[in-house]
């Protein structure tokens, strides 16, 4: 008998508790995230996770955040996004290009939920897009690299030949050519975003072939560490990697999504959220340059001036005329510089890149 | 006194029925302890994993969607394994099937090609998967090269080949140079069964394949041959069965089914060809095959069950904030327990007292 | 010449984890046990090895912990495959899933930390010799150990009585049992040795190769190690050739890209795998007679009483 009353009481308590918590939760805005890698990948996903933590810090009890990590960009993505919707999330960030079509499909199905897709080009009434003008940072890196290189040969580790990476290589070269018109770049495609061992091997191969500055568009700090062992300057990627190369990191293009995420969540809370395309650069702090370190003062000064010029809109990395590697001038569709569309779908190397474009 | 394992005279039907339940019970106990250690409510966590996904029709449909490729591939693999042919490269056959089928979709894009497109894609996908599966089989039969190695290596080759195609020749011209083909036309898409859901015709095809495999193994001479060659190779030789022939046949069937699964996945839930179309289906299906005791009906159940743990794992991440790594540990443990309990169908434990032990070497 | 030296150094470093893990698996398979869980044991070895090295500040302690972790993982497999006579392929795959999850949980605490990588040997005079100096006298301890290990395993398998018994278990467990050898106990030791090697190979990655831990950092090397044992047709000598060949093709394709030869990089990346298949087919073809696989490989054994 006693046992029974106890159970009944416990059930009642449990029910009361759950009803209470639902009512309470209804006041909160639920914000969901879909991550490509594990939260501890030190690169791409890690930076999104830091921004999510910044959201929690900023809004406290007003929001509740959830994430699904390691979501492959294939058939599982659509389900993962829909699961977040069904769990009551009203604003969902899908943080990789490959989630574009799945996000769009789910967005069409749930018109009252707002979606934010990172680095894609398809939008809808309830699906916004956002990305960074990383190429601006790469231009600065190119200038620094050309100054720091003794032999005029840069080593570049590419992940996959998508426009973001191609425009990064081109911006690097255009920046470097302002310092040294004869600069050379060696490119190795790792065909992976993430395999520390392979990234390290690629860095070794580049250094062994005579490159004396290492830059990468893959996610782990492995290349930085190899450069550090050999005492050759290098750039970080996605995040601050100075810890892995305290004597060699020059700077790093760091993804800093927090300001954007905070502004979007604020808009959602205020009821002013609109579907937009945000392609932010240095001026909006969508990404930031890690402190300029391990370089002479004049190089540092040059980098800071270039950064200021780009931030102020006075300098366009892809200023016309842009000449491709075959010597043809690229049509200038954006006034005095290449248009956003040209940069977003970039599929050619600029003059001076002595490498065959993959897939061409 | 110590415990030894010994073979039963015949398989225990009681244990065959009870063993999955015991395994699930053991997993629940172990995971409850683990959840308590990491500070999560075990009851709520187990609810998220096992119960919640089974209580709404959306999750049930998604379980079927996830299970479809797993079951298709695992059925083929089970035939291989029954015949003692070790195909562990189903992932590559899956990818090649997807690539080959997509070829028709890409070539007919934007034309007024009729309803023949999808059937042709499925056929070509299956045929290409079968051919790709035959490579390790031929290397084995003709040169004696281990099929375990060659089939595994060919997975990486298929992966990079697909990557090359979608970044080069087959890239969507309107796609900002991102690595994907254009979305397939409606005639090149696997139709969904229920409007607004992702449950597609592939699920029906998987059921048909399960039924066909049951008939093949249970009621035909070929099926008998496959089982005999695997279970008793010497007897099979005396019976005049050609094991080389069976290696080729089972590899072709399993490659074909993996290829079919690949093109169905691409023309169904994904809708275009892109890198990363398989979250490791070809490898997960190996587990499904063994979990299902290499039996078609068992594979169907095992495929659905494994799909449940994936969907439950997502719900646990969402509602309980349980990291994905815990779900992996959970899946691993569950597999250990299920396999261990299944072992008692064929074996039993016996206590041995040393004084009565039979001297070594005379057993 | 300098470039050749540099390439050889890179190849040795890239091949070492493959060689260590494959050596362990070779012994396990020679005793008749196919453990497909190498990737899982490696990644747990990597997580534990890095954690221990980070906490203790000692690479040696890290390596020992990696070995211990790999051994413990292999014990789970042994309970399944040997104790309970469960299918080895399925048990091994389950071990890999389990290990990937477990390593993530263990490693979560020290993601983003770094250590100083294992020191390289330096003998004044010898290490400074041109061309061969750094290759022969300038490696880290893991490289020398991996070579000692494979020589030791060769000696054990072909020159000792215990090695002969172990091979007998792998070729015909029924006969070995009939002759009075404790088949299961021998296999247990072989599986544990395999686990220890996989754990060490995993630990090599964060201790010497890329001195930090990231989930999933083994990136499929366990599978390559498995493939190499088959490639080597279960012979230690060929294993060395296979591991270095695979490492060499991996590194050379990167160099070919850096030199700008204009072949699609996907094709270059698939070269190591294609080369492995082609060489294996060529080897198998040249060999007369049947397969050299241990005859009892992958089959369960339950002693008759």
Q: Which class of secondary structure composition applies to the elements of chain C?
A: mainly alpha
Number of helical regions of chain C = 12
Q: What does the radius of gyration of chain C come to?
A: 20 Å
Mass-distribution shape of chain A: globular
Count interface residues per chain for the largest interface.
B-C, 56 and 58 residues
Task: Determine the N-to-C terminus distance of chain A.
Answer: 80 Å
CATH top level class name of chain C: Mainly Alpha
Total domains of chain C: 1
Topology readout:
The complex is a heterotrimer of chains A (360), B (363) and C (305).
Chain A: H1 2-26, E1 29-34, H2 44-59, E2 63-68, H3 76-86, E3 91-94, H4 100-109, E4 114-118, E5 127-132, H5 134-148, E6 153-158, H6 163-179, E7 184-189, H7 196-208, E8 213-216, H8 222-230, E9 234-238, E10 249-255, H9 258-270, E11 277-280, E12 287-289, H10 297-311, H11 340-344
Parallel strand pairs in A: 1-2, 1-3, 3-4, 4-5, 5-11, 6-7, 6-8, 9-10
Antiparallel strand pairs in A: 10-12
Chain B: E1 2-7, H1 13-37, H2 42-51, H3 57-82, H4 90-107, H5 117-143, H6 147-167, H7 201-219, H8 221-231, H9 233-238, H10 243-270, H11 281-291, H12 296-320, H13 324-346, E2 347-352
Antiparallel strand pairs in B: 1-2
Chain C: H1 2-30, H2 38-56, H3 59-83, H4 88-107, H5 132-137, H6 141-159, H7 161-171, H8 173-178, H9 183-209, H10 221-231, H11 236-258, H12 265-286
Helix pairs in contact in C: 1-6, 1-9, 1-10, 1-11, 2-3, 2-4, 2-9, 2-10, 3-4, 3-9, 6-7, 10-11, 11-12
């Amino acid at each position: 008998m006693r046992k029974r009353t106890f159970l009944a009481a416990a059930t009642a308590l449990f029910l009361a508790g759950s009803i209470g918590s639902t009512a309470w939760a209804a006041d909160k805005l639920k914000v969901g995230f879909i991550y490509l890698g594990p939260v501890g990948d030190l690169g791409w996903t890690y930076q999104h996770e830091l921004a999510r933590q910044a959201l929690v810090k900023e809004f406290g009890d007003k929001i509740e955040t959830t994430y699904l990590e390691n979501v492959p960009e294939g058939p599982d993505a659509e389900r993962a996004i829909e699961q977040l919707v069904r769990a009551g999330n009203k604003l969902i960030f899908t943080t990789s290009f490959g989630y574009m079509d799945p996000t769009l499909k789910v967005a069409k199905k749930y018109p009252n939920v707002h979606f934010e897709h990172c680095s894609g080009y398809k939008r809808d009434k309830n699906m916004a897009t956002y990305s960074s003008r990383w190429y601006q940072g790469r231009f600065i890196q190119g200038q620094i690299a050309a100054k720091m290189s003794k032999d005029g040969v840069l080593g570049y580790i590419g992940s996959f030949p998508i426009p973001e990476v191609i425009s990064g290589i081109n911006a690097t070269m255009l920046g470097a050519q302002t310092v040294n018109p004869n600069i050379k770049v060696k490119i190795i495609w790792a065909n992976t975003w993430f395999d520390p061992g392979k990234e390290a091997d690629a860095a070794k191969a580049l250094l062994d072939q005579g490159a004396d500055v290492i830059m990468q568009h893959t996610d782990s700090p492995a290349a930085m560490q190899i450069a550090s062992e050999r005492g050759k300057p290098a750039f970080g990627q996605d995040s601050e990697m100075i810890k892995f190369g305290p004597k060699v990191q020059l700077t790093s293009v760091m993804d800093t999504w927090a300001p954007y995420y905070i502004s979007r969540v604020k808009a959602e809370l205020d009821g002013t959220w609109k579907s937009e395309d945000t392609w932010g650069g240095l001026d909006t702090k969508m990404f930031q340059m890690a402190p300029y370190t391990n370089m002479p003062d004049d190089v540092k000064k040059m980098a800071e001036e270039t950064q200021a010029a780009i931030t102020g809109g006075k300098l366009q990395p892809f200023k016309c005329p842009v000449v491709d590697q075959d010597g043809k001038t690229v049509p200038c569709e954006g006034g005095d510089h290449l248009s956003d569309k040209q940069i977003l779908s970039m599929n050619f190397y600029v003059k001076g890149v002595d490498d065959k474009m993959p897939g061409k | 006194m110590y415990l030894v394992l010994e073979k039963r005279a015949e398989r225990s039907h009681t244990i065959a029925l009870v063993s999955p339940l015991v395994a699930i019970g053991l997993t629940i106990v172990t995971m409850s302890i683990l959840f308590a250690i990491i500070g999560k409510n075990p009851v709520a966590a187990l609810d998220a994993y096992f119960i919640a996904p089974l209580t709404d029709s959306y999750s049930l449909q998604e379980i079927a969607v996830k299970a479809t490729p797993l079951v298709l591939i695992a059925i083929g693999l089970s035939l291989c394994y029954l015949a003692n042919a070790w195909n562990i490269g189903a992932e590559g056959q899956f990818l090649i099937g997807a690539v080959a089928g997509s070829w028709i979709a890409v070539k007919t894009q934007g034309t007024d090609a009729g309803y023949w497109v999808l059937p042709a894609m499925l056929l070509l996908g299956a045929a290409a998967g079968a051919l790709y599966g035959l490579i390790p089989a031929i290397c084995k039969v003709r040169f004696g090269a281990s099929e375990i190695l060659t089939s595994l290596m060919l997975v990486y080759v298929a992966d990079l080949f697909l990557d090359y195609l979608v970044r080069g020749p087959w890239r969507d011209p309107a796609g900002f140079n991102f690595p994907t083909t254009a979305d397939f036309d409606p005639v090149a898409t696997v139709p969904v069964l229920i409007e607004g859901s992702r449950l597609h015709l592939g699920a029906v095809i998987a059921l048909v394949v399960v039924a066909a495999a049951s008939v093949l193994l249970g009621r035909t001479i070929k099926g008998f041959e496959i089982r005999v060659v695997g279970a008793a190779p010497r007897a099979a030789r005396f019976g005049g069965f050609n094991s080389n022939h069976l290696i080729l046949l089972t590899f072709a069937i399993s490659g074909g089914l993996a290829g079919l699964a690949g093109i169905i996945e691409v023309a169904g839930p994904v809708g275009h060809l892109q890198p990363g179309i398989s979250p490791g289906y070809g490898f997960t299906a190996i587990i499904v095959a063994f979990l299902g005791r290499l039996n078609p009906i068992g594979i169907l159940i095992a495929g659905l069950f494994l799909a449940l743990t994936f969907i439950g794992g997502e719900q646990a991440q969402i509602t309980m904030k349980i990291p994905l790594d815990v779900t992996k540990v959970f899946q691993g443990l569950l597999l250990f327990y299920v396999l261990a309990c299944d072992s008692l169908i064929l074996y039993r434990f016996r206590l041995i007292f040393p004084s009565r032990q039979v001297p070594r070497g005379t057993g | 010449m300098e470039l050749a030296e540099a390439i050889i150094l890179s190849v040795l470093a890239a091949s070492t984890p493959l060689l260590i893990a494959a050596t362990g698996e070779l012994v396990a398979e020679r005793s008749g046990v196919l453990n497909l869980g190498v990737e899982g044991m490696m990644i747990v070895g990597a997580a534990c090895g890095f954690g221990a090295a980070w906490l203790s500040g000692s690479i040696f302690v890290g390596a020992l912990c990696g070995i211990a972790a790999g051994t413990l993982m292999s014990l789970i497999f042994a309970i399944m495959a040997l104790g309970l006579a469960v299918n080895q392929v399925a048990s091994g795959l389950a071990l890999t899933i389990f290990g990937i999850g477990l390593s993530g949980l263990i490693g979560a605490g020290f993601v983003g930390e770094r250590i100083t990588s294992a020191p390289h040997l330096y003998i004044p005079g010898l290490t400074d010799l041109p061309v061969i100096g750094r290759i022969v006298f300038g490696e880290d301890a893991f490289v020398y150990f991996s070579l000692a290990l494979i020589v030791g395993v060769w000696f054990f398998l072909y020159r000792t009585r215990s090695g002969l018994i172990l091979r007998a278990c792998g070729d015909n467990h029924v006969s070995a049992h009939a002759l009075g050898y404790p088949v299961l106990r021998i296999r247990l030791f072989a599986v544990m040795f395999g686990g220890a090697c996989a754990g060490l190979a995993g630990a090599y990655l964060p201790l010497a190769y890329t001195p930090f831990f990231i989930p999933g950092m083994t990136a499929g090397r366990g599978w390559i190690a498995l493939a190499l044992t088959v490639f080597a047709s279960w012979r230690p000598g060929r294993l060395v050739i296979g591991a270095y060949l695979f490492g060499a093709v991996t590194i050379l394709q990167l160099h070919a890209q850096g030199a700008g030869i204009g072949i699609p990089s996907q094709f270059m990346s698939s070269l190591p795998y294609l080369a492995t298949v082609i060489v294996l087919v060529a080897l198998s073809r040249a060999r007369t007679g049947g397969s050299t696989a241990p005859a009892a490989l992958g089959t369960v054994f339950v002693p008759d009483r």
